[in-house]
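re the bet — no i am not wrong, look at it urself. input seq straight from the record:
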Amino acid sequence: MRKKEIIVLLIRLLVICPLILSTRVPSSLWWEIKVTLIADGEYKMEGGEKTYSGNYSFATLWTGTMERDNTDYILYHLDSEILRWEAQEKAVSADFFNLLTTSDFAEKPCFNLNYILRRGDVLHFDFSVQGFDVPRNESPDKFYLNLPCSEENNHKLREINYNSFVAKGSNRISFEEKEIYLAPQEKTFVWTWKSQKWMLKQERTVFLSNGHKVKAHISIKPHH
């Protein structure tokens, strides 16, 4: 083979090889993320003129994407919706009874996926469901209805250490980082949370009870 032909062949290889490699190796990688959270709970307040008791059930869906950013990840929120919301509350005394239903609850749970933290080789989900004050009936006393949150979000809550009252299961939402590069991943996390306490309100002792059962399903799907 003459020298000129060798040079032409080398030029062609320099042009073709990158094109071949580009069809096999992805230029970028991103992940589709879905979080479905289902919760059933109840609360109670007694010790005053009336006793208040309520229960609720809801399901939320969060969708978004995630991209690698050097050694960290960037999270993008696409949509968040309440798939189901049901609630009722009773106010009872010796001569009084009132029942509130779902339509009487002006506020609803609000799910927030704040970020995904990389710690070592593990990715930790930080999310919370924003609650509201109860009872919804007219009452001189109110307390904040704690709704589900992940272990990573604990320090952001008000009035209570959420993680200290996880009675069963675990709210630690995490994935091994290497797993999300290999194939689509799905995990379901289940826990039960319960808080009961006595509080002094205007020289009266008030009993507060608040609890819920949670199932959080997480799916992470890689895309090229």
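see?? The longest strand covers residues 72-93. told u. also The chain has one domain: 28-223. so pay up
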